[in-house]
Amino acid sequence: MQTFVGEEAGTAIGGAGAQEAAVELSHIDRAMQRLPDDQREAVLLVMVEGYAYKEAAEITGCPVGTLNSRLVRGRDALMAMLGESA
After folding, report:
1. What is the pLDDT of residues 30-53, one digit of tens each?
2. What is the domain range of residue 28?
3. Could you say which residues form the signal peptide (predicted)?
4. pLDDT classification of 17: cutoffs 50, 70, 90
5. Tell me, what's the pLDDT at 32?
6. Which stretches of the chain are DSSP H helices?
7. CA–CA separation, 80 and 52 (whole Å)
8. Which CATH number belongs to the domain containing residue 23 in this structure?
9. pTM of the shown model
10. In terms of C-beta density within 10 A (0-12 exposed, 13-18 middle, 19 or more buried), how is residue 57 classed?
């Protein structure tokens, strides 16, 4: 399972750690761009921006169940693209 460390921890690693983090973020960004728009929006709102499911559903104008389905499909697709198991 992929975990992310705080910014402070990254500075202690030095240049190599920062380079690896930049490469990883680049991979994530490319994978996000490959998602369908509705899945990308759900992932961004809930997993990146931190909105609750109900709030994200209101923003997107869809029922909570639909938002949840988009989020699950988007997350699973990202994990597959990034070579991780869900």
Report:
1. 999 999 999 999 999 999 999 999
2. 7-81
3. none
4. confident
5. 93
6. 7-13, 15-34, 37-43, 53-60, 64-81
7. 24
8. 1.10.10.10
9. 0.71
10. buried
